[in-house]
Amino acid sequence: MNDSKKQMKLSVISGLFWKFAERMSSQLVSVVVTIILARLLLPSDYGTVTLVTIFITIANVFVNDGFGVALIQKKDADDLDFSSVFYFGICFSVFLYLVIFFGIAPVIAVFYNMPILVPVLRVLALQLPIASINSVQQAYVSRKMIFKKFFYATISGTLISAVIGISMAYFGMGVWALVAQYLTNTIINTFTLRTIIQWRPSLSFSFTRLKELFQYGWKLLLQSLMVTIYGNLRSLVIGKVYSANDLAYYDRGSYYPNLIVVNVDAAMSSALFPAMSHEQASIERVRAITRRAIKMSSYIMSPLLVGFAACGTTFVSVLLTDKWLPIVPFLQIICVNLLFRPAQTASLQAIKAIGRSDLVLKMDIPIRVFGLTALVISVQFGTIYIALSEVLVGILGVILYSLGCRKTIGYKLKNLYWDFVSNVLQALIMGLIVFSIGYFVHINHILLLLLQISVGAVSYIVISIICKNSNFYYLLNTGKEFLHRK
């Protein structure tokens, strides 16, 4: 392996390590803070902020998506590109904030008959201009592949905002404790990242450069908007058609498997896209990175998901108590659906990296149309069928993205499917062993869960050695190289 390829490999591994560390540490702190706040605040406080954050999340798509990705993808992006996006982002986000302040906030409050939504939405929307600044900073960090900076910024924002939120909740400030936590997290994250990176906007602006970036970014922005609306729509439909308990079981059943996937998936996306963009002139190199990413991510995620599904009943009984056992079928179905995610993520990043944002949009539209159709049909039969319909959406997604991968980088379909299916098959063998232990062994649930986890980990390693899985040895060798470099 020549020096440039070896350096890129180590950069990708380093990026994955730091992004995963960032996501996991942030998630751990957030879970602890959520438990504490849940004891101090009323459910209505959470309901108010949850409702508002749906609209903030959608507005954030316009601020964060599109231009940031375009800056990373553009091969010769310079300071003029970054500065143009920086100033445009601030102006547009301020305009968006004024629209929310004077127009959207009062309308939403009247629609839901909740006057408190007006001040809460107006204050939380202050996050938009701050997020526009941070999106450019994050694009700079991603482009330079200095992901350690993300770790420091995220941890700072998470910890400081946690202290502020808990303190305000303790002194009885209710919903405003959650508002303060959410807003200060963004502020501290942005300020910290601005302090530790070298880039500063110059006094320059170009509509021509902005137009070039927009031609690539608007398709990704629209795709992200569709995904965001689609993701929130499902919960709204379940809450409207079925009971609050049904919605709680569905959401909790989705939440825990997604804790596994979101962290790994976010790390993959953040590290792979800039690496592929650097190599976009060489289709062979992009294909090689994509293939290795699918192999490695599916090798890591498949046993986690299959193992989680296999010991789901024990997990729920131990950590959530038996009253939450109805979430187990949802948990298991979502685990199956998420098995397709590694192939989808790596394929999507490859297509974006070589500049085919138009193809991303063309593929995503039929996926969302199919998903909405499946939702309309399945909602008539029950929430379990809504979960099952998501598996069909996941299968369609991996088929379309794989076709796009074959068209753009020449990644043969039989190779792509086998690269992740082979790992899934090994994980299923491990999962059968773990499930059998839970079925036949009758001991204390805590001991049973520890036994299932231990046997699952050991059996997967043994299966990898017996099957001579190249990913196992690649992971060992890469880990040694990464530690040696440190």
Automatic annotation (TrEMBL):
<dbReference type="InterPro" id="IPR050833">
    <property type="entry name" value="Poly_Biosynth_Transport"/>
</dbReference>
<keyword id="KW-1133">Transmembrane helix</keyword>
<dbReference type="Pfam" id="PF13440">
    <property type="entry name" value="Polysacc_synt_3"/>
</dbReference>
<feature type="transmembrane region" description="Helical">
    <location>
        <begin position="446"/>
        <end position="467"/>
    </location>
</feature>
<feature type="transmembrane region" description="Helical">
    <location>
        <begin position="150"/>
        <end position="173"/>
    </location>
</feature>
<protein>
    <submittedName>
        <fullName>Lipopolysaccharide biosynthesis protein</fullName>
    </submittedName>
</protein>
<feature type="transmembrane region" description="Helical">
    <location>
        <begin position="416"/>
        <end position="440"/>
    </location>
</feature>
<keyword id="KW-0812">Transmembrane</keyword>
<comment type="similarity">
    <text>Belongs to the polysaccharide synthase family.</text>
</comment>
<feature type="transmembrane region" description="Helical">
    <location>
        <begin position="384"/>
        <end position="404"/>
    </location>
</feature>
<feature type="transmembrane region" description="Helical">
    <location>
        <begin position="296"/>
        <end position="318"/>
    </location>
</feature>
<feature type="transmembrane region" description="Helical">
    <location>
        <begin position="220"/>
        <end position="243"/>
    </location>
</feature>
<keyword id="KW-0472">Membrane</keyword>
<feature type="transmembrane region" description="Helical">
    <location>
        <begin position="48"/>
        <end position="72"/>
    </location>
</feature>
<dbReference type="GO" id="GO:0005886">
    <property type="term" value="C:plasma membrane"/>
</dbReference>
<feature type="transmembrane region" description="Helical">
    <location>
        <begin position="20"/>
        <end position="42"/>
    </location>
</feature>
<keyword id="KW-1003">Cell membrane</keyword>
<feature type="transmembrane region" description="Helical">
    <location>
        <begin position="84"/>
        <end position="104"/>
    </location>
</feature>
